[in-house]
Amino acid sequence: MKGEILKHLSQSSTALSGERLSDLIGVSRVAVWKHIRQLQELGYQIEAMPKGYRLLAAPDTPFAWAFGDRAERVHYFPELGSTMDQAMTLARGGCPDFTVVVADRQTKGRGRLQRTWQSIQGGLYFTMVLRPKIPTADSALINLAAAVDMAATLEDLYGIRAQLKWPNDVLVENRKLCGILSQMAAEPDRIEFVNLGIGVNVHNDTRDVEPPAISVAEITNRPVSRTVILSTFWDRLEQRLSQGGLGHVIGQWKERAMTLGRSVKVQTLTESFEGRAVDLESKGGLILEMGDGSLKTVVYGDCFHQEV
Ligand code: BTN
Q1: Which of 1, 211, 245, 289 lies at a CB distance of 3.0 to 4.6 Å from 276, suitable for a disulfide?
Q2: Distance of alpha carbon 67 from its chain centroid, rounded?
Q3: Ligand 1 centroid to 180 CA: how many Å?
Q4: So what's the pLDDT on residue 223?
Q5: Whose C-alpha lies nearest to ligand 1, atom 7?
Q6: Ligand 1 mean position to 134 CA, how many Å?
Q7: In this structure, which residue's CA is closest to atom 3 in ligand 1?
Q8: Against a cut of 0.85, is the pTM above it?
Q9: Nearest atom (ligand 1) to Cα of 169
Q10: Cβ(180) to ligand 1 under 6 A?
Q11: Quick count: other Cβ atoms within 10 Å of Cβ 277?
């Protein structure tokens, strides 16, 4: 209902009366008025004049209704422990493909290799439940695709030319703009779900974040919107997966990569390796040239670029 009201108000160049809105939506004028009041309380600037209502400004909050036809698949929370946990419950309960859990803040936001992900107000924190029809062995390609699609989203919207650090960090000037963490439930031949957890620094203050981070608002002079970033990324990833577009992802990732050709240290939960990153294999693993000239492929871990 709120989504419908906002859609009509934003499409109209003149004020819309309560009567007109109630006709358009098929509810009483009192119901329209109540929803308008609630929207105003949530931060929407809606002017109420004798001629009717006019939408002046909308808050940058990823309320479900801000996603139009996708609203039913969006679960928005002002605060959560971690969107990963809520998404896991929904995924195990059989929620549809491309269900999204998004929160304004997380009290237990987590990153890869059991790190904490600072999740204060202003950032974009979401987990997307995907049910891709791909072989389980290809699952790492989804994470690479997400990094490529987020980098492309930020380039399209704000002209940001981000680089990718293996496996799926999005960086600008060597500072982290976006991190990706995924959890999967699968059988040897079939993926049940992949939960893709993405944190983007948007308006949040990143000064105290370690390792060094940067936000979209800091890079661009244009107004930035978490809702627009999420919707645009969603368009890209949904289109890619519906067209079986994982075949191109390795090449697309390499075009934006900053890891290849560098001396790196790769840390897994239990070991670490040092070598020169020379290539990506077809499933997304990083190929390292070791000190003795042998090649080693690492499929999971975090990568640190060594100073040269
Ligand atoms: C990393 O770079 O270490 C991955 C960071 C992933 C952070 C996101 S924010 C949304 C989702 N919920 C979490 O608790 N983590 C992911």
Answers
A1: 289
A2: 14
A3: 6
A4: 85
A5: 199
A6: 24
A7: 111
A8: yes
A9: 2
A10: yes
A11: 23
Question: For ligand 1, what atom is nearest to the CA of residue 123?
Answer: 9
Question: Which residue has the CA at smallest separation from atom 9 of ligand 1?
Answer: 199
Q: How far is the CA of 6 from the centre of ligand 1 (A)?
A: 31
Which residues contact residue 30 at a Cβ distance below 8 angstroms, ignoring those fewer than 6 apart?
A: none
> At a CB cut-off of 8 Å and minimum separation 6, what does 251 contact?
none
Sign of CA pseudo-dihedral 167, 170, 174, 177: negative
Is the beta carbon of 201 within 6 A of some atom in ligand 1? no
What pLDDT, on a 0 to 100 scale, did the predictor assign at position 113? 84
Write down the pLDDT at residue 301: 87
pLDDT of residue 136: 92
Determine the pLDDT at residue 308.
56
Is the minimum distance from the CB of 83 to ligand 1 under 6 angstroms? Answer: yes
Phi, psi values for residue 256, rounded to 5°: -105, 5
- Mean pLDDT by runs of 10 across the 308 residues of the chain is 88 89 91 93 91 91 92 97 98 98 98 92 97 93 97 97 95 96 93 98 91 94 92 97 88 95 90 94 95 92 81
Atom index in ligand 1 nearest the CA of residue 109 equals 14
| Assigned token pair, 190 | 């079939």
Residue nearest atom 16 of ligand 1, based on CA coordinates: 197
**Is 128 within 8 Å of 98 (Cβ atoms)?**
yes
List domains and CATH numbers for the chain: 2-57 (1.10.10.10), 64-256 (3.30.930.10), 263-305 (2.30.30.100)
Nearest to 158 by CA among 205, 92, 222, 74: 222
Ligand 1 centroid – CA 126 distance (Å)? 8
Is 150 close to ligand 1, i.e. is its CB under 6 Å away?
no
